[in-house]
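It is worth pausing here to work through a concrete case rather than discussing structure prediction in the abstract. The textbook approach is simple: state the sequence, then state the predicted structure, then interpret. We follow exactly that order.
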Amino acid sequence: MFFYRNTLDEIVKCSNLKIARVRENFERDRDATNTNIVEMKAAIGLLLMAGVLKSSHCNTDELWGKHGPDIFRCTMSQWRFLFLMRCIRFDNKMDRIEHRKFDKLAPIQLIFEQFNANCQKVFTVSEYTTVDEQLWAFRGWCGFRQYMKSKPARYGIKVNTLADSRLFYVKNMEIYCGQQPQGPFHVSNSPPDTVKRLVEPIKNTGHNVTFDNWFTGILLVEHLLIECKLTSVGTLRKNKTEIPPSFAQTKKKEEYTSQFVFSKSGVTLVSYVPKKGKLILLVSTMHDRKEINAETGKKKKPEIICFYNQTKGGVDMVDQMSSNYSVARKMNRWPLTVFFHLLNIAGINAQVVYFSNTQDKLLRRHFLGQLSEALTTQHIKTCLMNSNFPRQLTTRINLYLGKVQDEQQEVPVPASEDQQPKKKQRCELCPRKTERKTKTCCSKCRKFACGNHGNYYCNDCAEM
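Step two, the predicted structure:
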């Protein structure tokens, strides 16, 4: 009984501490309780910075801790960031139930469509594109979660993607959610129909589309050539009924030999034997000759295979780039997981647009870091107007803003005696109980510092 009472007292004490902490955080952010676009941009900027630092899976206590980056503490409190991540939604609560009756993607459908529309509007991809599958890692509850053994994540949300094969710009995406209920979102999920919907943004442009054997079919490549004015290259499975039986046989075929078949509709079939007993089948509407790549030497690979190897990895490269600086945090809500991956793709697309306009070959982590600072700076300046902020936090924010703005500038000259204040003020670096006063202040951050903590510069500025 004594142990129970002590435990109960400790629980009450811990609860009071938590309540006090929540009240303190609320007092700090009470002027920002009405969320606006500036604050949401700042939260997205913090997500991007966590991805740049490869700390998206780190506990927020580390990011907002004593040794964490200044950008997190200067932008918003840890409590506020977690509050925004917990409360963020992408649909209207009033009509959510009605929309879910005919759309499984109702919680994210609106923002996903807007993101796709913006990607298609702001940039024109090159002549070579790739259609492939992505798997956005997610192990929580989701009615259309998929298992793909060939993907590193194994479990997640399957997304069919159209991307640039050279610049890796994502042009169009479609989330696979199984069979939709009858209504405006009820469409066929067959591979040919999926490709036809994905290539709508580049229809009648003469571009080429590369895809693997999951999507490839003779009827599909003919449709893309005649109806959409698009060429295509892809691998074929041996069990396709359009392939002649003798063409798909591996017996009596020597190593490094190729066989070509041409049709009147402009479709070219090629079979290549890379080693004894193995056969590779490809179809192309872009090539119409028996071309062998001379650079492959004795392997004598057809030009169709070499072109396919060069252009097949567009979507896979997007996956790799997204995982390098991913903003995705561990969440049990699949709409938020989709939102995180949209931010990853937005970072890739933004850098492609930036490079195309400026020809500045900026490293991706530097670009994302500058993007994060641009998204958070306005909110940080707004926070300085809050009179309830602690003095130490205001000083830290001024130091951070000065560091961001003067990163490439020369070190300022120490202030002269005329610039020093005439009235004495308490040294901000000494403990409050000492009450040591001085007229000297730091010429960089304008913080009062006594002789023990610096002459013209305080110790904090001298270390920078």
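Step three, interpretation. The CA atoms of residues 170 and 209 lie 13 Å apart. The chain has a mean pLDDT of 85.
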